[in-house]
Amino acid sequence: MASVEIRDVRKAFGATQVIHGVSIDIVDGEFVILVGPSGCGKSTLLRMVAGLENVTGGEIRIGERVVNDVPPKERDIAMVFQNYALYPHMTVADNMAFSLKLRSAPKSEIEERVKKAADILGLGHLLERYPRQLSGGQRQRVAMGRAIVRNPQVFLFDEPLSNLDAKLRVQMRTEIKELHQRLKTTTVYVTHDQIEAMTMADKIVVMHDGIVEQMGAPLELYDRPANMFVAGFIGSPA
Ligand code: ADP
Ligand code: MG
């Protein structure tokens, strides 16, 4: 676990600035949700925390360490995307083991970590299957398993449920929250779904056009929206 500190972070692609001085403090073990309309900069911000995009200005700290110039592989972070491509030619077990193999972890440790992640996610009986033999929800669990085995300090989720049907989405929300209660890993979770934000977050950060409109506990935002944008966004049906 680690805190994540985003301090006056800016991002431009060429001449176009898309993130305008965003600051967010994320406490050790907190589950923070970035929410806002499509195109407001959620993924870009998350990718900067992961190191997949460089920052144009400001500072990102993970724990005590400023990571602006630290490559993704050296940040102790695991990311789960919306299009969580599993390796089709590898079994579930090998999909989960792959990133540990890349990091030259000892074989016995890999086996132990894969087994533990599989137990947590209810994948124990599916370890020898291939992705094509799994349901959508099972694939999503394998994608999470790949993140869990690394035992990272920080989880980053980018709209991980948006390709699932409504019923499964509700079930996976609960599973992700239970996972967080169990592992207490600091989590930054991006969604454009305000219901997801209201039901899952310790703290919600409402973004709009590259700025933070408001952040706070779900009920705080609901009871005291800072402006019309937040009120409209939080109050509107999914
Ligand atoms: P969100 O995830 O909230 O939908 P994004 O972070 O993907 O938003 O995008 C924020 C803005 O940055 C959008 O206007 C998008 O078009 C722009 N953008 C994102 N990535 C790039 C890129 N690689 N090059 C140019 N513009 C980009
Ligand atoms: Mg996005």
UniProtKB/TrEMBL annotation:
Q: Which residue ranges does the record assign to the ABC transporter domain?
A: 4-234
Grouped into one coarse class, the protein's main location is: membrane
Where is it located? Cell inner membrane
Provide a GO biological process annotation: carbohydrate transport
UniProt keyword annotations, A-Z: ATP-binding, Nucleotide-binding, Sugar transport, Transport
Whether ATP-binding counts among this entry's keywords is yes
Single annotated GO MF: ATP hydrolysis activity
List the signal peptide residues.
Answer: none
What is the membrane topology here?
Peripheral membrane protein
Transport as a keyword of this entry, yes or no, is yes
Its Gene Ontology cellular component terms are: ATP-binding cassette (ABC) transporter complex, substrate-binding subunit-containing
Tell me which family the UniProt entry assigns to this protein.
Belongs to the ABC transporter superfamily.
Official protein name in the record: Multiple sugar transport system ATP-binding protein
Source species of the chain = Chelatococcus caeni
